[in-house]
Amino acid sequence: MSHRPDPDREEDGNTAPLSTEPKQPRTVAAIPCHNEERFIGSVVLRAKGYVDLVLVVDDGSSDSTQHVAQLAGATVIRHESNKGKGAAITSAFQYAREAGCSALVLLDGDGQHDPDDVPRLLRLVLNGEADMVVGSRFLQIKSNVPGYRVWGQQLLTFVTNLGSQAKLTDSQSGFRAFSPKAIKALSFSEEGLSVESEMQFLAKEANLRLAEIPITVSYHDKARRSPVAHGMGVFNSVLGLVSRRLPLLFFGVPGAVMLGVGIWQGIRVLQLYEDQEVFYLGPALLTVLFGILGILSLFTGLILYTIKSYLK
Length: 312
Hints:
By secondary structure, the chain is of the alpha/beta class.
C-alpha cells in the first residue's frame, strides 16, 4: 500500500529538513542537481506554481544548493556524496512511488529548462494520453543550441533509437513527465548521465506510451565538462546499454559482416593463387583475422542472447 514519505527520513545517512508539503501531492516536480546554488532558487520558485510539490535531489553539492532550495520552499533529499544524475533520478522516482503521485516531471536545476513548459508536459500524462512525455529541443528548434550539442545529441539519439527500437527526436533531454505506470515500471541501473537513454530502453520493454512536445532551452554558461569527454562518456554508456539488451544486434551483425569480409578475402586469395601461382601472405592473414573475429563476435552475441533469454 502506498504511503506518504516521511519528510524527516534519512536519505544516505542524512536528515533533510523539509518544507511543509501536501499530504498526498498529486503532481511532483523533481530537480536533480549538483552545485546549482546560482539557479536552483529561481527554478524552484517558478516550478511551484505548476505542481503540488517541488522535490530537489541535492546530489552531494559542496555549495549552498540545499539551503537555497529549502528557502525557496522545496522538499530536499540530499546525497552525502556526488553519485551521478542517474542516482539522483532514482531517489526522485523512489519518492514519487512512495507518495503515490499522479504525475512526476523532471527538469534540470541549472536554469536550462523553462518551468513554464511544465503544464504542457504534465497535460498529456494527466489526460491519460502518454506514460512518458519528453520535452524535445529538436522538434521545433527555437533555442540557440550550440552546434556541437546538436551534432552530439543527434548521434546519441540515433544510437539510442536504434538500440531501444523506440523513436524520439531528443533522447538526451532531461525535461520529462511520467505517469504512475511509468513511475512504477522504471527502475534504473545507470547512475551517470546516460540514464535518459536507459529510460528509453526500459520504456520500450515496459510497453509505455511515449510522446514528445517541443520545448525551448537556455544555456546560461559554458559547459562545465569537456563536451568531447562528456559526449564520449555518454556514448560509451549507451553502447553498453545496447550490448546488454540487444547482444545479437551489437555483436552478431558486426560479426556477420567481418565473417563475410573474411570469406570474400579468402576467395580472392585463392583466385590470385590459381591465376598467378603466387600466394599473397598479407591478404591471407587478413582472411584469417576477419574470419576469427567474425566467428568470435557471432558466438559472443549468440551466447549473451541465450543467457539474456534464460534470465528472462
